[in-house]
Amino acid sequence: MPNQYPSDLTAGHSPPKAGALTLLSWLLISTMLMASHAVLADPMGRFGSLLNAVQTVRAPGTGGGEGPGNGTPVVSSAPSYGVLLDSDVVYANGLGHDNSSSSPFAQPQFLDVYHPDNDSENRPVFMFIHGGGFKGGTKTKPEIVEMADYFGSRGWVFVSVDYRTAGDLGATDGLSSDEVLAFYNGIAPREWTEFSLQGAETPDQFQQGIAMYAAQRDAKAALRWIVANAGTYNINTDFITVGGASAGAITAIALGASELEDFRDEILGTDDPTLTTTNLDASYSVKSVVWFWGSNLKLELFEAIYGLNRYDGSDPELFMAHGTDDVNPGTPFSEATELQGIYDPLGVHSELVPLEGKGHGAWSAIVNGKGLFELSFDFLLDRQNLTLN
After folding, report:
1. What number is the average pLDDT over the span 101-129?
2. Fewer beta carbons below 10 Å: N end or C end of the chain?
């Protein structure tokens, strides 16, 4: 369909070529970016060439400060504890729109905390981010709840987070370029909005582009909430794992590799007053990333917009599981091997488990007699040097 977005917004930049790369055509974006890395010099010059395209057991959130952090946490190989649930905890607010709003308003963002019913004062934490193409999804997806019970019963605090998706950010049909920029002011940076407009062929694609930024901002806020409330759950913040599936994996790898200020400081509190609800004084260091059938798209877009490659030798170690027959255009199996190609030269440990013959979302895959939860457990036990009970 013809690009419906106003031409004045992209004046001064090269127009997208025919057959443009779009935010949904993630495979093509990745291919183009890899070919472009050697010749691109500045972030603004990239616009034309790249975007041719359950039970409540306490009042949650009342604790504060870091957890004990004394020594190595002890976990169990078999389910050893009951799992308690603090559900729908507000971890921050974020700006959004409904179908009739002209100005953004604060929307509460929620997470669920699954924690073992034991007396440990030294627990590792695993934050998980659901998928859904940045258009939907839920923290209570049955497979995620099952995963939470698996890790919670073995000694982890498992946190499943919701975040803003395209449906929370409103629609811009019929708006001029200036109106579009004003509509998303405080939700996404101007440069991110412009970049998304250049590549979007449909309103849905444009809204997904905005949602990608908002999702990352929320995920970082959720992790800061975990650190700020570590004392409530006896979390050892030296043992933080972040994981996700599909769009959640895209967000998880960006959370692990990006700097603390990324997806935070591009929009200041003058434009986004909800920033003050996001535990800005909390810092974190991710030890491991668990990545199911995702891609590297978000950090590629970040590099294209800001000229900053965030991968380096201090990045968290990475466990990947990906279906070899994944035909989702944004998350082909080649995305996993591409990430290995990024990690290996940096000397950062990564492991890839190919899910032979499986497509996208292969939650039930078995490899050498082990499912995804057990494979992830084994990786974390070994690479984090956890103590096994």
Report:
1. 98
2. N
By residue range, what is the domain housing residue 284? 7-388
The CATH number that applies at residue 83 is 3.40.50.1820
User: Which residue carries 């294209």 as its tokens?
Assistant: 304
d(Cα 313, Cα 321) in Å, to the nearest integer? 22
Write the single-letter amino acid at 85. Answer: L
Mean pLDDT score of the chain, rounded to an integer? Answer: 86
Domain membership of residue 248 (yes or no) is: yes
Six-digit token string for 215: 């999702």
- Per residue in 181-200, pLDDT (tens digit) is 999 999 999 999 999 998 78
Examine residue 2 and state whether it is found in any structural domain, yes or no: no
User: Residue 231 — φ and ψ, nearest 5°?
Assistant: -65, -30
**Coil, helix or strand for 238?**
strand
Q: Cβ-count burial of 365 within 10 angstroms (0-12 exposed, 13-18 middle, 19+ buried)?
A: buried
In the block, residue with structure tokens 């604790």: 63
Q: What tokens were used for 247?
A: 């769009």
Pairing state of beta strands 105-116 and 157-161?
antiparallel
pLDDT at site 10: 38
- Exposed, middle or buried, 69 (CB in 10 Å: 0-12/13-18/19+)? middle
Q: pLDDT tens for residues 14-61?
A: 333 233 234 434 433 433 333 333 323 333 233 333 333 333 333 333
Helix (H), strand (E) at residue 74: strand 74-75
Integer Cα distance of 214 and 211 in angstroms: 5
Residue 121 lies in a domain: yes
Residue 305 resides in a domain:
yes
Q: Is the pLDDT at 321 greater than 50, yes or no? A: yes
pLDDT at 353 over 60: yes
Structure confidence at residue 19 (pLDDT): 30
Residue type, 329: P
Number of domains in the chain: 1
C-alpha to C-alpha distances, 248 to 28, 165, 172, 236, 288, nearest whole angstrom? 20, 11, 25, 23, 15
User: Which segments of 77-198 are extended strands (E)?
Assistant: 83-96, 105-116, 123-129, 157-161
Torsion of CA 56, 58, 62, 68, to 10 degrees: -110
